């Protein structure tokens, strides 16, 4: 039985906003300020007699000098251990060294888990076609099971992520 899904990604890509959207309520604090989520936040989506536990992780950090960053990285890494699916959230407008680092962690830790790339903040992107080359590059970086352009803020395609999570129950 498998009902846990981890939401990973660097700070500020919209992980907490996505969790709230998936659950339809505000359980995780979102903020323009990076590092707002400092602990693992879990939320349970219940439908009929099935449940999916979504885990919002603190953003992963390159910079491990500060103790709080080390702790946050550890919390994020340990939350991948028990899940059946990982949603890797990136910002549709920016790919950074921090994203690359999260991807490297995924390469080492994802194993057989279903991995979905959620390209967030597409509501921000006026020229949607400009996104395609970017998506292709990302697909070449890692064999994601799926790539879904989303807007955690507006809810665009968030139902697709939920369907994929349900499919691993
Ligand atoms: P986290 O650090 O990855 O948990 O990111 P948050 O969920 O706290 O979001 C960081 C910032 O991005 C906040 O200001 C959010 O309102 C904003 N944000 C998140 N999702 C979206 C989205 O789909 N579209 C837009 N335009 N902004 C978003
Ligand atoms: Mg957060």
TrEMBL record:
Protein name, UniProt field: GTPase Era
Instruction: Tell me the ranges covered by the Era-type G domain, including all copies.
Output: 1-169
Annotated segments matching region G2: 35-39
Range of the intact protein held here: 34 to 202 of 329
Q: How does it sit in the membrane?
A: Peripheral membrane protein
Example GO biological process term?
Answer: ribosomal small subunit assembly
Region annotation (G1) maps to 9-16
Which cell locations does it reside in? Cytoplasm; Cell membrane
Provide the gene name from the record: era
Provide the Gene Ontology terms for cellular component.
cytosol; plasma membrane
- Presence of the UniProt keyword GTP-binding in the record: yes
Signal sequence interval, chain numbering: none
What family does the Swiss-Prot or TrEMBL record give for this protein? Answer: Belongs to the TRAFAC class TrmE-Era-EngA-EngB-Septin-like GTPase superfamily. Era GTPase family.
GO terms for molecular function, please? GTP binding; GTPase activity; ribosomal small subunit binding; small ribosomal subunit rRNA binding
- Region G4: what ranges? 120-123
């Amino acid at each position: 039985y498998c009902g846990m899904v981890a939401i990973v990604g660097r700070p500020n890509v919209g992980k907490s906003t996505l969790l709230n959207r998936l659950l339809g309520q505000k359980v995780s604090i979102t903020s323009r300020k990076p590092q707002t989520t400092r602990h693992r936040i879990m939320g349970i989506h219940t439908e009929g007699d099935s449940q999916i536990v979504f885990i919002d992780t603190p953003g992963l950090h390159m910079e491990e000098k500060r103790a709080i960053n080390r702790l946050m990285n550890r919390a994020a890494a340990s939350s991948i251990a028990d899940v059946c699916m990982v949603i890797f959230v990136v910002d549709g407008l920016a790919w950074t060294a921090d994203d690359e680092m999260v991807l490297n962690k995924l390469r080492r830790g994802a194993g057989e888990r279903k991995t979905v790339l959620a390209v967030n903040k597409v509501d921000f992107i006026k020229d949607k076609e400009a996104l395609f080359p970017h998506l292709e590059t990302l697909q070449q970086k890692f064999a994601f099971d799926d790539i879904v352009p989303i807007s955690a803020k507006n809810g665009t395609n968030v139902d697709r992520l939920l369907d994929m999570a349900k499919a691993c129950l």
